[in-house]
Design brief:
heterodimer, A: alpha+beta, two-stranded antiparallel sheet, 3 helices, 35% helix, 22% strand, globular
Chain lengths: 83, 358
């Protein structure tokens, strides 16, 4: 599989849903049989996976592109993000 | 303070068109009427209040209830991630579309084998072609698909074909669940027990496929605890993460807990919150205080809580005993003896029937 690149347009996989936890206010990423509690930066990245490019996400968040690409690659390998 | 439940397992009915010999449903239950829709809706509300974020609609076959749609819709309102766990019978494309419109998040479809013959043998019904159609309908509706296959001596050698089938069906996730010997599977243990060589070969195939399919299909291989020497952390701990609600409205910490001599809270008269926090049944084996030796002083006690309470009771008659699958259990001999069945010709299967009243 090619690496996630600056011009990749990541989107949440069909099986993955983001929501706010009603007890803690944290952002949860839910998928079959699992859930992840996201930290603020992970939540911010995934909330921007709406069809814009990884470079645009990095620009929007003022975060290093390399960090964004690494995070998205991990989630793509887990089938939670599609590019 | 009580832990927080994350998952509600809603067993909507024990009725099922299939008769799988490894079914995890109880073989005996109390003779009580089904929980009405209004109570199920309340249970969903109360589950969300407690912190539950995932609900599995299961059974038996949940599609046999005609109120599945309003239950899925309520789960969606509550932002619960809803999974339909189904045999695929009886369902039409229209009904699946309606469930999706109601907010269903994902479908888990069972297969028994990669071919018609062995599927029908273990399920008592020829449903293979029908399941292929259901998988195609799930994908056509763009719903996420998990394929679930219970593994045993009769299908482990076909694991490559099973993985290929799941790929061909476009599944996002394949659950290869080695049989856990509870419910009907316990009755059929000798017939289902695989050899260590079968398991080793299957494990190698799965490891290779997992690498090849990374990012496309998630592969889960539920370990065969009878062939290990340390127990599973059953249900993530008793009363720690899961609540099972039975078709007649009892709350249980585990779907197999019927075998234990406990009075399980009745959700017709008690809230889910009170059942979770205060009932004797949920508190009984929570944490590790109840453990006897060798678990009490074991450095893994916080990891696995001594294994499965139901299995400990089923095999030794003592619910607080070490799960005999553990090599440190004084009754590990029971498991070693059970493994030996794999070397013998398989006895005839006893196909599942509806649970009978105690």
């Amino acid at each position: 599989m090619p690496a996630v690149a600056a011009d990749s347009r990541p989107q949440l996989a069909r099986k993955a849903r983001l929501r706010t936890d009603r007890l803690t206010g944290e952002t949860l990423l839910l998928y079959p049989e699992h859930g992840l509690v996201l930290n603020d930066s992970a939540a911010a990245i995934l909330r921007l996976c709406d069809g814009r490019s990884a470079a645009d996400i990095a620009a929007e968040l003022g975060a290093p592109l390399a960090d964004i690409l690494e995070f998205l690659s991990v989630l793509r390998d887990r089938g939670l993000v599609q590019t | 303070m009580s832990p927080r439940p994350y998952v509600l397992v809603a067993e909507l009915t024990y009725r099922c068109p299939l008769r799988c010999a490894y079914c995890s449903n109880p073989t005996r239950v109390d003779d009580r009427p089904a929980l009405p829709t209004a109570d199920w809706l309340r249970v969903l509300d109360e589950a969300a209040e407690l912190g539950v974020v995932q609900v599995h609609f299961t059974g038996g076959e949940p599609l046999l209830r005609d109120d599945l749609e309003p239950l899925v819709a309520r789960a969606a309102e509550l932002e619960l991630y809803s999974n339909l766990i189904t045999s695929g019978l009886p369902v039409t494309r229209d009904r699946l579309a309606g469930l999706k419109a109601a907010g269903l998040c994902a479908v888990q479809l069972s297969f028994q084998a990669a071919r018609v013959g062995p599927s029908a043998e273990i399920a008592g019904v020829d449903a293979f072609a029908r399941k292929l159609e259901v998988a195609a309908a799930v994908r056509a509706l763009d719903l996420p698909l998990t394929v679930n296959v219970v593994l045993h001596r009769g299908n482990l050698d076909e694991i490559e074909a099973i993985i290929a089938l799941a790929e061909q069906l476009g599944a996002e996730r394949l659950e290869l669940a080695n049989t856990q010997y509870l419910g009907w599977a316990y009755q059929n243990r000798a017939a289902l027990m695989p050899s260590a060589a079968q398991l080793d070969a299957a494990r190698a195939v799965v490891a290779e496929a997992r690498d090849r399919l990374r990012g496309r299909m998630e592969l889960l291989f539920v370990l065969p605890d009878y062939h290990g020497d340390r127990p599973r952390t059953c249900m993530g701990g008793w009363g720690e993460r899961y609540i099972v609600v039975t078709p007649d409205g009892r709350a249980l910490p585990c779907h197999a807990a019927h075998v234990l001599p406990l009075a399980f809270p009745d959700l017709r008269t008690q809230s889910l919150g009170s059942a979770w926090r205060d009932s004797e049944a949920f508190q009984k084996y929570r944490g590790t205080d109840y453990l006897a030796e060798p678990c009490r002083s074991c450095d893994r006690r916080e990891v696995d809580h001594g294994g499965c309470r139901c299995q400990a009771f089923l095999l030794t008659g003592e619910a607080t005993a070490a799960d005999p699958v553990c090599g440190l259990s004084p009754r590990h001999d029971l498991v070693i003896a059970a493994r030996a069945a794999a070397a013998e010709p398989a006895p005839p299967l006893t196909l599942r029937r509806l649970p009978v009243a105690r």
